Amino acid sequence: MKIVLFSANEAETAQAITALDPAFTVTSVAGPITAAIVDSYADADIISGFAGCDFSAAILSRLPKLRFIAIRATGFDSVDLDYCRAHGIQVSNVPVYGDSTVAEHAFGLLLALSRWTVPCAEATRRGDFAYTPARGFELRGKIFGAIGTGHIGRRAIEMAHGFGMSVIAYDEYPSPLLRDAPNLRYAPLDELLSQADIISLHVPATPETDGMIGESQFARMKRGAVLINTARGQVVDNAALLRALESGHLAAAGLDVLPDESQLRHPAALFAPDAPAAPATMRDVLAARVLASLPNVIVTPHNAYNTAEAFRRITETTAANIKAFAQGNPINLVT
Question: Integer distance in angstroms from the first to the last C-alpha of the chain?
Answer without folding.
Answer: 21
